[in-house]
Amino acid sequence: MTGPGGGGRGGRNFPSKLPKLDAKTFARLIRLIYQEHTVRLVVVVAAILVSSLASVAGSVFLRILIDSYITPMAGQGPGVSFAPLIGALMKMALIYASGVIATYTYNRLMVTVSQRTLKTIRDTMFSHMQGLSIRYFDTRSHGDLMSLYTNDTDTLRQMVTQSIPNFISSIVTVTAIFIAMLATSWQLTIVVVISLTSMLFISSRIARKSGSHFMAQQKAIGATNGYIEEMINGQKVVQTFTYEERAIERFEALNEELYVNAFNANRYANILMPIMGNISYIQWVIVAIVGGTLALSGLAPLTLGAIASFLQLSRTINMPINQMAQQLNAVAMALAGTKRIFDLLDEKPEPDLGYISLTHATRSEDGTLLPTCDSTSCVWAWRDEKRGTLTPLAGHVQLLDVDFGYTEETLVLKDVSIDALPGKKIALVGATGAGKTTITNLINRFYDLADGKIRYDGININRIRKGELRKSLGVVLQDTHLFTDTVMENIRYGRLDATDEEVLEAAKMANADFFISHLPHGYQSELDGGGTSLSQGQRQLISIARAIVANPPVLVLDEATSSIDTHTEAVVQQGMDALMAGRTVFVIAHRLSTIRNADMIMVLDEGRIIEAGNHEQLMKIEGQYWRLYTGVFELE
Asked: 23-74+81-346: CATH homologous superfamily?
């Protein structure tokens, strides 16, 4: 029995034993398909019935053809008329033609059903994934999530397109054949049942062996593909550290494991069909001998046509039974992938109970905010949808006695309090793992607090809708991510309604206009592969321009200039200073020289703020910041 081939990405794990049929997942999948394709499925089932019954009817009609037409004609001599026989053959041809048309119909429809279903599932998965928390992605590998869109959906496609229709067709065909055989001769039916029992016993034993090896083969393919992908991405590191020979050795070991599992899987699979074929030939001979004996001895009223028809039925029943065994294996493995897809869809979206949103408002002469806007006097405000009140968006961020841990057992932040007044620059300093980036993640509400509060313009951020909260924050991360699109659109990602002129101005402020203008197509140059054609510093400049065009009241700069050389940093810093003017800014930096002008410097150690003040104040007390700044103690 053959199993599905193909490879996996991301080192996906497969069980060592054949998975059992998951009835709950299967029923849910059928409901999903039925809701969108009710009419098509009705036509498919009808076509399957016609196709299966046509196949059986052809074998049954063989008895009529021999007994009612061929045998009487054999004794009529030279003047026999072939018209009745030709008419019968035409009827037989129509039966088979209807079966062919029905088979084509349901196969064609199932392609449409499967592809539309996969499109719906992929759209639903991707849309649902956008609402999941950052914590969900932190706890799962990207390769494993990618396999949902590749391996799992592909096995689902095979199941919907082939396995389910073939399985239904096989059940109908076997049922119809068994009834036809019983109606022809119950004695010969017993012979066939005994033969089929032995075939199923042998096939199940072989399938058990081949199935486990196919599972191991899938796992080996996933590991091999994952290693190849890793080596391709890290080829520069491989060659830099002359790791080539070791890389080849590890690949050969993985490839050898794949070879052994693939060899064993196909060895058992390839011997199955010849064994089944030989047993079916033996069965055919035994049926012919027993049928002839019964007819000649008069123990059963069997005619020549009945025996010929039964022999055809006995040959026909083997194929659908083998198909059912094969499809069960394919369906079981596909359902394992389908369950993973449903597990993702069942993952609860990130909760958002906020009821405060951003809106444009106008400040009247007496300072009151009005829920109207014109192009000359628009300001941003927080709108309380329950009370209908407006609060000016100023950028005042407060952390009050905040505790947080990525797990319940370990706290990363402990009793952290920060008061970032509007327009002030707050610098966060500390060793790796001290909790600096965690603070900015909490301001964005990527995670919820264990204890304490965060207020934004006096509003608990839990009351602000997450999308609206994040719209008011500009972020420049240490690891720049550029999308496969033009440079213009990558900068416009900060604010999708920004004009080309605003994008150009933002690029000039970030000092990115010079190198962008010298690209082959300037701002319309296509970036792919995360912008690998650009230097790391150039990618960071585009990221800074993206934050500038967003024009937010609060900025988070997480090592924003870490990838820029000292000369470029001095130029960019001028644009950054212009950007930061009048805004609340959180800066995370290892280069302490870049934060000397910060209004408040917070020194963190093991999740606690151990020092706070401006540069001059902290240098006077000669504490941890002084040791870091003078080089007595270096950041890790």
From this structure: ABC transporter type 1, transmembrane domain (1.20.1560.10)
Give me the residue spans of the domains in the chain.
Answer: 23-74+81-346, 356-392, 482-551
Q: Which amino acid is at 81?
A: S
pLDDT at 568 over 50: yes
* pLDDT of the residue at 403: 93
Distance, in Å, from the CA atom of 539 to the CA atom of 487, rounded to the nearest integer, reads: 10
d(Cα 579, Cα 573) in Å, to the nearest integer?
Answer: 9
- pTM, two decimals, is 0.69
Rounded CA separation 321/283 (Å): 15
Beta bridge partner(s), residue 356 = 384, 464
Residues belonging to the chain: 636
261-291 pLDDT tens trace = 888 877 776 776 677 777 778 888 888 888 8
| Listed residue (516, 506, 555, 517) closest to 537, CA to CA | 516
Backbone φ and ψ of 383, nearest 5°: -110, 115
Q: Cα 306 to the chain's mean position, in Å? A: 55
pLDDT at 459 over 90: yes
378-429 pLDDT per residue, tens: 788 899 988 888 998 889 999 999 999 888 788 889 999 999 999 899 999 9
Strand partners, 379: 361
Mean pLDDT of the chain: 82
The DSSP secondary structure of 273-327, one letter per residue, reads: HHHHHHHHHHHHHHHHHHHHHHHHHTSS---HHHHHHHHHHHHHHHHHHHHHHHH
Phi, psi of 9 (to 5 degrees): -115, 155
| C-alpha dist (Å) from residue 592 to 1, 175, 601, 629, 630 | 66, 80, 10, 6, 10
pLDDT for 587-609, tens place per residue?
887 778 778 888 999 999 888 99
Separation CA 499–CA 612 (nearest Å) = 41
What is the C-alpha separation between 166 and 172, in angstroms, rounded?
10
Q: Distance between CA 65 and CA 262 in Å, rounded? A: 48
Q: What distance in Å separates the CA atoms of residue 294 and residue 298, rounded to the nearest whole number?
A: 6
- What is the structure's pLDDT at 229? 73
Separation between Cα atoms, residue 223 and residue 259, nearest integer Å:
13
Q: What are phi and psi for residue 395, nearest 5 degrees?
A: 95, 30
User: 213: how many CB neighbours lie within 10 A of its CB?
Assistant: 22
CA atoms within 13 A on the CB side of 580: 25
Dist. CA 522–CA 486, nearest whole Å: 9
pLDDT in tens, 465-475: 998 998 888 88
CB 369 within 8 A of CB 381: yes
Residue 316: which of 164, 105, 170, 165 has the closest Cα?
170
The candidate with the shortest Cα–Cα distance to 541, out of 500, 572, 581, is: 572
Sort strands 600-605 and 425-430 into parallel, antiparallel or unpaired. Answer: parallel
Running DSSP on this structure, what letter comes out for residue 518?
A: T
Q: How far apart are CA 37 and CA 117, in angstroms?
A: 9
- CB hemisphere CA count around 197 (13 angstroms): 6
Domains 23-74+81-346 and 482-551 share a fold: no
The CATH number that domain 482-551 falls under is 3.40.50.300
- pLDDT confidence of residue 146: 79
